Amino acid sequence: MAQPALIPSRWEDAPDQGAPQAELLAGLAAPEAVISPKYFYDPLGSKLFEAICALPEYYPTRTEAAIHATHQQAIAASVGQGCTLIDLGAGNCAKAASLFAALQPRQYVPVDISADFLHQSVAGLQERFPQLPMLPLAMDFSTTLELPASVDGQRRLFFYPGSSLGNFDPRQALAFLRRVRAALPPGKGDGGILIGLDLVKDVRVLEAAYDDAIGVTASFNLNVLNHVNALTGADFNPRDWRHVSFYNARQQRIEMYLEARRDLIVRWPDGRRTFRQGERIHTEYSHKFTEQDILGLLEQAGFGNCRMWFDQRRWFAVCHAQA
Ligand code: AVJ
Predict the structure, then answer these.
(1) Complex ipTM, two decimals?
(2) What domains lie within the chain, and their CATH numbers?
(3) Does the keyword tRNA-binding apply (predicted)?
(4) pTM value?
(5) Which of 272, 323, 271, 316 is nearest to 291 (CA)?
(6) Which pLDDT band, with edges at 50, 70 and 90, does 7 fall under?
(7) Mutate to test the pocket of ligand 1, among 40, 49, 159 (most ligand atoms within 8 A of CB)
(8) Taking a C-beta distance cutoff of 8 angstroms, is the pair 309, 75 a contact?
(9) Which of 57, 61, 164, 282 to mutate to test the pocket of ligand 1 (most atoms within 8 A of CB)?
(10) Which of 68, 98, 169, 276 has the least C-beta neighbours within 10 A?
């Protein structure tokens, strides 16, 4: 039987971030309709993302895991042991957990927008690591990085794996990295940011990863409509929409949309919108990076001492940088 935790995990109060309805409905009413990718992650969406990570076509998760496994000693030497490990978009917490042995964190702070999924993940993890204090935070970290006072302010390591930074456009990505840096204690001590970023590569490899043969990514994309219905009272029928994704080489990003299969009217309390057949709702960008892009971004955000690790095919990069 698992030992009780020395310091039990606590469910911290996240900052009040207001209702998502207003943001969602503004996006749906816009001339080019948009739903932010953060709304993918309802309980089913979080599970579908886990399924994506197991697909043969979706290389990022297993490639990053292999880099972590191969270079964990070098990563730990660069990062330093005993940090407060703040895991942005923790999901099932598997990536961070694979580094616990090497990093020996003093506190684990998984942050995720998907509250129920996060709490289930942490309950299981706390049984496997009863001695490690865990402080799960259910919040939208894209709008604020204000952390409760119980998160240790010294020797923080922000862990931002999976190329989630690629969901932001380049300007937002820079602003986000600056906010991470501002949440780090000044000076070049231990900690900093440990970030995983997907690299530019053959377009066929990229496009297969976001349009897999058995339709899991299509389901993940379409499920956002179920979540939007639950959050806003809209009456989207996922059957009326199709998954569209492609690589935009000029912008260095995968673009994902939902496309109306026929002329439609979508209604919600106090509003409605017509969509013409073929009209699209933008749901996600997934930017891809070169080594130079990564170094430039981190430097512009004020980070220094960047170290990078790659897989043999150079499909993915793991980077540590200090404040
Ligand atoms: C979790 C944002 C990194 O962009 O690759 C996977 C999400 N979208 N398949 C990505 C995603 C479609 C993923 N991130």
Answers:
(1) 0.99
(2) 31-53+201-285 (no CATH), 57-200+288-321 (3.40.50.150)
(3) no
(4) 0.92
(5) 316
(6) very low
(7) 49
(8) yes
(9) 164
(10) 276
